[in-house]
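Retro notes
What went well: the complex prediction finally ran end to end.
Inputs used:
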Amino acid sequence: MAKVIEKAQQEKEALISGSEAIAVACKLADVDVITAYPIRPYDTVMQYVAKLVANGELDCEYIVAESEHSQFEIVKHASAVGARVFCGSSGVGWMYAFEALTVTPALRIPMVAMVGNRALDDPGAFGVEHNDALAVRDLGWQLVWVDSAQEALDTALIAYRVAEDRRVFLPCAIACDGAFLTHSQSMVKIPPQEWVNAFLPPYNRGDLQLHPDNPITIAPQVNEDWLMELRKHNDEAMKRSRDVVIPEAYRDFERIFNRSYGNPFFEEYQTADADVVLVGMGTLSMPVKVAIRQMRKEGKKVGFVRLRWFRPFPAEQLAKTLSRFGAIGVIDRDFSFGAPYVSGVVATEIRAALYPVDKRPPLLDFISGLGGREVTVPDVRRMSDMLFAARAGTPQPLTTWVGVRE
Amino acid sequence: MMADAVETLPTQQLEAFKGVKKVPLEEYFTSGHRTCQGCESALVMKLMVKAAGPRTIVLGSTGCMYVANTTYYSTSWVVPWMHTQLGSSGSAGLGTAAALKALMRKGKMKEEPINVIAFCGDGGGADMGLSAISATLTHPQYNVLILLYDNESYANTDIQASGMTPYGAHTTFSPPGKVKRIMHTRWKKNVAGMLAAGHPESKYIGTVCASYAVEMMNRVRKALTIGGPTFIHSLDPCPKGWDYDPMLSHELGELAVNCGIWPLYDVENHRLRLYGRTKALAEKRARRQPVRDFLVRQGRFAHLTADDIDYFQAKIDEMWDKWLLPGVLPIWKDLEVDNPPAS
């Protein structure tokens, strides 16, 4: 593989959106079967895929399905026969596919999907909320949030590598904030095909492939006799993904593509000397980082942790990192009505992750940016002020809705 | 400029069996299943895959033919088989066929014609999965047969009414009671006719009944050989759901055909052909039996009164006397111009 890099093929650069970046990744990954169904904002990826197919740049069966349920069922079955597949959806479209989403990890189908995060109906809203992708968090889907078009392209390649690793064989959804990432363009380095080929081996389903040469029966009724053992297999696959396969994939990615993401599971921004820390997922990293730079000029030492992999969840690592700070503020671009302390999903998970740790700083949750509303720099400053107050020992509400009309 | 031709893979050339003695002995659906005594759907599975042969992938949606046939550590399927969700037979067949096509074209799998059959029950096919089946029948480039085995109820879950349950039938969702004798007032959907009318790209859509086993197998072979997306609808008497002695399964299938309630026909390359007893009935070479003969043999109709049976008979007479294509297309012959609506 070193040889490949020595050849020093140039990466091309292009001004493309997050959706287009993932379409380019599908081409580089030589995907075999792709199914499309329209819903904003994810569907831009399928518009780019359709152009790649029409122009002969991507050789795949490209099927326009009649619903999201069929969209995900079609690729599920294509994957069982040995095809590399891609699919995606947003908001209630993802929910319409829910039955198919449930059986996909249970069948050990390494599908890669894009979720263009969108608020769930009703009432209608096109903008980002993370509840759609988060709905599958208990089912065996690997879930990764990205915050730039470059990271979307790179993570799509990593997702295939991790999902199709026989030690894992679980699907992976790449969550991209609707509009902020799906529709925003930035300069993206597009790697040469040789690098991708060196990084991503062909999909090999082995003895699980459905074919007349391998006449197996897939998913017979197991009932109480075997279901628990099979659930345990998936549990162990998810653990192997976190402990071995994801770190391996990022190390190889760095070596072959000369681009490093540091810790695969979360990015740390100005945390080295921070007194308090904010945590969030996706594109809210932009206003948070801007606000942190402003506050630092005023002597307020705020750091930021951007969580990438929500499943598998890096509990021990994250808890160890977060326990260093004087207070933790989680920004949830989601809701979980009636949850403990009426917090969002991410804050609830992080509280659980912190429980076994000796030093547990105060943790405040901020529900913000729902339905595509911007998380603004003043919002972030207000959150940080509350964190400093909590650090100083002044009790603060455990959950606050920020940027909402009262 | 000519439009691009639709690229299809070659199909297996499966010739019709010329008589029951020419049917091979090899079975691809064998022991290990737990279907009820007299289950006609199990016979349909056996004949379907016997006709298709060993180079076949079968996808089965949730229903009797999933739950009763495949128990972990024992499978009755000799050919590769995979479960699919209740409403997904169309999508399962489509995805499997698309993968084979892509992998063979791209040199990732050895090229050979492989049959793809997706089956569904009446609940999975005619109710929940109709939309996906319809979509699949519009994709001319994929070779996939969808077979609907219709036992006229959700039989696996305790005999609940489906969109294919006949008028008046007693099911656990439509029990006759003290005030309402008829709880199920819907007339059975006409699925094969509806699909034939709405899917001009499908080269084969037909109805079968396993009481006529060789004819049934030959229609499976025809559908697989002709290629593209195809559909077969099989009426399967069900001792448990219809409430009759299991020894009567074959006879009830024959009665359904002879009473005209289950017409046998193919639409092959867009041409309609009635076959078997149905052809004889249509050509008046044989007389339709009264539907009473069919109904009285089944416990699910035990509560019907003489008036109810007359209503049932009148609806069947309508199928044969009023329908534009008798037994196939429920648009009446007398056009609107002849009978303007009252205004």
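What we learned: Chain A is about 40% helix and 20% strand.
What to try next: split runs per interface for comparison.
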